[in-house]
């Protein structure tokens, strides 16, 4: 938790995300397929950004680059002032572990572990003592409204509940950035809205969130929409008609 | 702490596939059980053999007839008949104070019969001082005397195995008459049990006076061996030189000729026993080694399947911050857990097998802590060796690729 204090201390006018001219080429056989072709993005601390674009526009690959799950072919990416495009695999693993919380479309929970154990997993790799892992995991599961589901296995949980577990897991190491790839993609409207309400709560608490979606209604819950096409950023606008998830839920 | 967590994951995964895991550990299990049982047999036999040799006394030198040599080919011990009773007398007389006593022996296989019961066994024709020199004890009745030997009386002292075959266990044969190769002998005593070394049964023998055996039973003028008692353990080498000098003189060997007899001290027997047990150990270990390698390949195979099945899990773990080394250690621990599990079961099975073999054959089985430690380390290293490649494969997966895997 000490590094966290230091990183929070850095002046707020340093962008949390500063990606400049990122490229990612996939080489399949002898063919080079450019997935991201020079995308740049700056996100300040506390922002809630939606990345939109048609499928194949490179938005998911860009998200993986931001999440340090993949390394750019060229370009620079600074996360909280640290140039992560130069780091080695172990250092990237540590960034994924401590600085970033990732929420996937398919939840990606480990099937042989209970909700509680799934949430404890990132803390295990962070070397948090068991007692603290347990209490923090319980705290975050309560926060996402799953106090009574802690000892359930993923197969015993609904899609929305599984996504809440995934969010609790993303939060447990208190990351500086939360990334999410189509978090509502597998959920019905109401459940999707509940998940968005959770994200909006996190944003109100001051967290920085970047999510990928292709649904305009989901994107309208954010503050800012970045549009991708053919591996490049083609538009970057603030959201004028913002939706409040709780207000939407009230109408459903 | 992370390691404990990984061990827990390994157990969960192994128990999630009970049958598969059980079959996988079978190879290691058999290999380890083999190591334990064979060590028990070989160590037991070696222990018995050394005990027998030590009972014989460190100051006993044995003399055998020499080998006949044709060109460069040795025909084997006993291929020549060179020891005669006068050699025995010569050794006893010309002692220079180094030699305390000496006894002669002639040994053949015979058929012994008592009232229609019939057994194939050994007869040792020996001098009356033989039990004292060679640490045989009479349990019942008495041993024969020098006078009986001189008179070539037909008296016999039986080993326990012979008593059991001819009279039944616990029977008292003293006073009864048996026939050895058709010649009637009166039983005057029974030897105390000596036991078997695994291969040789020291109770399966009949002792009769030397001269009776030579002249009334076998019709031979030659001895199978002479045992010589040297005055002190540290004078054995000098004693052997003395025996060599006496026998060369008695046999009138010119300096140009080689000995026509062979001398063996106890130390050499011990060496031979060590060598033979070492040979068997190496042989058995190579069999166990094959089984362990096969078991190891089984583990490698299953670990590769496991890594493929859990590609997505590996992706998730990496996404939430597992380093490659964490993944590698996790899968390595899983492989080692499998093989060590097989190893522990194998040790248990080896103990069981040793007990059963011991009970069925009457062999002494000796399970040494060393064998258990060796078996355990073997199984663990099989896991490490054969688990390394699959674990490496898991660790090298790219997080994005692994997450995309369906």
Could you explain the architecture of this structure?
The complex is a heterodimer of chains A (252) and B (406). In chain A, 37% of the residues lie in helices and 26% in strands. Chain A has 9 helices and 10 strands. Chain A has helices spanning 2-9, 59-66, 89-98, 115-126, 130-143, 159-171, 189-204, 216-219, 245-251; strands spanning 17-28, 31-43, 48-52, 74-79, 82-83, 100-103, 177-181, 208-212, 224-229, 232-238. The termini of chain A are far apart. Chain B contains 13 helices and 12 strands. Chain B has a 6-stranded mixed beta barrel with strand order 4-5-10-7-9-8. In chain B, strands 2-3 form a two-stranded antiparallel sheet. In chain B, helix 1 (2-16) packs across helix 11 and helix 9 crosses helix 11 (324-361). The two termini of chain B are 31 Å apart. The model of chain B has no long low-confidence stretch (mean pLDDT 86). At the A-B interface, helix 3 and helix 4 of A face helix 1, helix 10, helix 11 and helix 13 of B.
Mass-distribution shape of chain B: elongated
Give the strand tally of chain B: 12
Strand count of chain A: 10
Q: For the residues shown, what is the average pLDDT of chain B?
A: 86
**For the largest interface in this structure, which chains are involved and how many residues does each contribute?**
A-B, 27 and 24 residues
- List the total number of helices of chain B: 13
Q: Which overall shape of chain A is indicated by the principal axes computed on the Cα atoms? A: globular
What class do helices, strands and sheet pairing of chain B give?
A: alpha+beta
Helix content of chain B: 55-70%
Helical residues, percent of chain A = 25-40%
| Oligomeric state | heterodimer
- Terminal residue distance of chain A: 40 Å
Largest sheet of chain A: 6 strands, mixed
């Amino acid at each position: 938790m000490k590094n966290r204090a230091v990183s929070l201390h850095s002046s707020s006018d340093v962008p949390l995300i500063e990606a400049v001219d990122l490229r990612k080429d996939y080489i399949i056989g002898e063919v080079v397929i450019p997935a991201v072709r020079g995308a740049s993005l700056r996100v300040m601390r506390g922002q809630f950004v939606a990345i939109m674009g048609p499928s194949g526009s490179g938005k998911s690959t860009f998200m993986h680059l931001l999440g340090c799950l993949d390394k750019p072919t060229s370009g620079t990416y600074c996360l909280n002032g640290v140039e992560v495009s130069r780091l080695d695999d172990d250092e990237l693993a540590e960034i994924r572990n401590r600085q970033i919380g990732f929420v996937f479309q398919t939840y990606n929970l480990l099937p042989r572990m209970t909700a509680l154990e799934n949430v404890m997993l990132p803390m295990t790799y962070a070397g948090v003592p068991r007692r603290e892992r347990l209490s923090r995991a319980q705290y975050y599961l309560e926060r996402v409204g799953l106090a009574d589901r802690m000892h359930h296995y993923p197969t015993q949980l609904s899609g929305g509940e599984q996504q809440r577990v995934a969010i609790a897991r993303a939060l447990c190491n208190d990351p500086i950035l939360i990334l999410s790839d189509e978090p509502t993609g597998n959920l019905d409207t109401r459940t999707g809205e509940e998940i968005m309400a959770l994200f909006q709560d996190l944003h109100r608490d001051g967290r920085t969130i970047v999510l990928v979606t292709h649904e305009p209604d989901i994107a309208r819950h954010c503050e800012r929409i970045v549009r991708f096409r053919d591996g490049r950023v083609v538009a970057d606008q603030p959201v004028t008609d913002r939706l409040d998830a709780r207000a939407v839920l009230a109408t459903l | 702490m992370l390691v404990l967590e990984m061990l827990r994951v390994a157990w969960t995964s192994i128990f999630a596939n009970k049958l598969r895991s059980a079959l996988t550990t079978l190879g290691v299990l058999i290999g380890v059980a083999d190591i334990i049982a064979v060590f028990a047999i070989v160590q037991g036999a070696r222990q018995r053999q050394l005990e027998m040799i030590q009972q014989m006394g460190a100051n006993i030198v044995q003399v055998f007839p020499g080998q006949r040599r044709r060109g460069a080919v040795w025909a084997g011990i006993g291929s020549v008949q060179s020891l005669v009773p006068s050699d025995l007398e010569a050794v006893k007389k010309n002692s220079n104070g180094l030699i305390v006593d000496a006894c002669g022996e002639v040994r053949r296989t015979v058929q012994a019969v008592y009232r229609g019961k019939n057994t194939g066994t050994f007869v040792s024709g020996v001098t009356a001082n033989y039990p004292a020199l060679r640490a045989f004890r009479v349990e019942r009745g008495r041993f024969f005397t020098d006078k009986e030997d001189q008179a070539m009386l037909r008296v016999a002292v039986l080993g326990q195995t012979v008593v059991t075959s001819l009279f039944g266990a616990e029977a008292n044969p003293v006073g009864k008459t048996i026939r050895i190769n058709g010649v009637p002998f009166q039983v005057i005593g029974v030897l105390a049990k000596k036991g078997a070394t695994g291969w040789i049964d020291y109770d399966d023998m009949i002792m009769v006076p030397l001269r009776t055996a030579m002249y009334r039973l076998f019709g031979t003028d030659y001895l199978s061996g002479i045992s010589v008692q040297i005055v002190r353990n540290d004078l054995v080498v000098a004693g052997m030189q003395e025996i060599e000098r006496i026998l060369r003189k008695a046999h009138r060997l010119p300096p140009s000729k080689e000995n026509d007899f062979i001398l063996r001290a106890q130390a050499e027997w011990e060496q031979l026993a060590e060598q033979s047990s070492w040979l068997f150990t190496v042989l058995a270990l190579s069999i166990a080694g094959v089984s362990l390698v096969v078991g190891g390949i089984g583990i490698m195979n299953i670990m590769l399947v496991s890594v493929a099945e859990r590609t997505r899990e590996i992706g998730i773990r990496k996404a939430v911050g597992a380093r490659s080394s964490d993944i590698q250690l996790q899968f390595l621990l899983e492989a080692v857990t499998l093989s060590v599990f097989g190893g522990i079961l194998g040790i248990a099975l080896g103990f069981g097998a040793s007990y059963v073999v011991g009970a069925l054959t009457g062999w002494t089985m000796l399970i040494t802590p060393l064998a258990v430690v060796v078996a355990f380390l073997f199984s663990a290293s099989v896991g490490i060796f054969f688990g390394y490649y699959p674990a490496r494969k898991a660790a090298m997966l790219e997080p994005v690729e692994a997450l995309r895997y369906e």
